[in-house]
Design brief:
3-stranded antiparallel β-sheet; 7 helices; alpha+beta; 5-stranded mixed β-sheet
Length: 300
C-alpha cells in the first residue's frame, strides 16, 4: 500500500490598501509585508526615530546592508505600532523577555494589550498584529540548504518522514514551510529557537498544519492556529496565533507613503527616548524574532 505524503496547504493573501482600515478588532489578525529596498531612501529618517538601544544595535552590524535592513525594519515597526496605539513612533517603548522577544511596555490607553511579532529574510519583512492574542510570524526566502541534515537536528521523526520520500526541490519547499510553522509557534510563546526541538507539527490530509498532541513546548492555552502563508514561489511564511477563529487582513508596504509617512511626520516624531536595557539575547543567539535560517537566528 503506497503512502501519500501530505503537502502543506498555504493560504494566498488578498492584499488590501493600507488606507482601507487599520482598526484591529479582537478577532482580527493583521499581516504587513514590506520590501526594505522600497523604503531605503528614508533610511536616515528611520534612524532618527529609533531609541538609543536600537541605534546601538544597528551600529554593531558589520555589513551596511544588514544595518540598513535593521533600521528600516524597526522604523516601519514603530510607525505601524503608532497607527494602532496613537503614540508617536519615537514614543514607542519596548520590553524584552529573557529570549529577546520584544513587546510593548504597558500602555494605559491600550486595553486589551496589542500583540505583535516580526520576521525578516533577505530584503523582506513580515509583521503580525493582534489585540490580546499571542502571535508569532516567520518568513524564509528559499536558497540552497542541506535539508536532510537540518531536519535531522530540529525535526521529529514523524516530521522527517514527510520529507524523505520527496524529490530534492520539493524537500526544500516542504522543509521551509514546516520550519516557518514551527518557528512562528515558538516565537508566539516567547521561546528561543532552542524550543524548535521541543515542538512537533503534524500535517492533516487536507494540508492543514496543527500542533501535535503532547508537544513538549506547550502553552497553557488551547486554541493555537498554525497558518502557512503563500508569499510567492520562493518564499515560505507562517503565523501562529492563540485564537479560536480569526479574520485575516493583509497589507503590503510598497512605499512609505502607504503609511502616510512624510518628512513632516518624521520631524514631529523626534522626541527624547527614555533609556532602555539592551535585550539579554543579542542578535545571533537564537532569539524568536527573524527568519533565523537566513539572518543568523536574530531578532527583528
Amino acid at each position: 500500500m503506497s503512502f501519500t505524503v501530505p503537502k502543506i496547504a498555504a493560504i494566498a493573501p488578498t492584499w488590501l490598501s493600507s488606507s482601507e482600515s487599520t482598526i484591529l478588532s479582537s478577532e482580527d489578525v493583521h499581516l504587513w509585508l514590506m520590501n526594505v529596498e522600497s523604503c531605503a531612501e528614508n533610511l536616515l529618517l528611520f534612524e532618527q526615530i529609533l531609541s538609543p538601544d536600537e541605534q546601538a544595535r544597528a551600529a554593531k552590524f558589520r555589513q551596511e546592508g544588514d544595518r540598513a535592513r535593521f533600521i528600516i525594519g524597526r522604523g516601519i515597526l514603530r510607525h505601524l505600532l503608532s497607527c494602532y496605539t496613537g503614540l508617536a513612533p519615537s514614543a514607542i517603548c519596548f520590553s524584552y523577555n529573557s529570549y529577546g522577544k520584544p513587546a510593548l511596555k504597558s500602555l494605559s490607553n491600550a486595553t486589551p494589550p496589542l500583540q505583535f511579532n516580526l520576521s525578516h529574510s533577505g530584503g523582506l519583512v513580515l509583521y503580525g498584529f493582534t489585540q490580546e492574542h499571542p502571535i508569532g510570524v516567520d518568513l524564509e526566502q528559499h536558497r540552497p540548504l542541506d535539508v536532510l541534515a537540518l531536519a535531522q537536528s530540529v525535526f521529529s521523526e514523524s516530521e522527517r518522514a514527510v520529507l524523505n520520500p520527496l524529490p530534492p526541490a520539493e524537500q526544500l519547499t516542504q522543509f521551509l514551510q514546516l520550519w516557518t510553522c514551527k518557528e512562528a509557534y515558538v516565537k508566539a510563546i516567547g521561546l528561543g529557537l532552542s524550543g524548535l526541538e521541543q515542538v512537533e507539527m503534524a500535517i492533516a490530509s487536507d494540508g492543514s498544519v496543527y500542533l501535535a498532541p503532547f508537544t513538549k513546548a506547550s502553552s497553557p492555552h488551547s486554541y493555537w492556529r498554525i497558518q502557512p502563508v503563500s508569499l510567492g514561489d520562493h518564499v515560505s511564511a507562517a503565523f501562529a496565533v492563540n485564537i479560536q477563529s480569526f479574520n485575516l487582513c493583509c497589507y503590503q508596504i510598497r512605499h512609505v507613503q502607504d503609511l502616510g509617512i512624510s518628512q513632516r511626520v518624521f520631524e514631529k516624531s523626534k522626541i527624547m527616548h527614555p533609556p532602555l536595557s539592551t535585550p539579554s539575547s543579542p542578535k545571533g543567539k537564537g532569539e524568536p524574532g527573524s527568519g533565523s535560517l537566513s539572518s543568523g537566528r536574530g531578532l527583528g
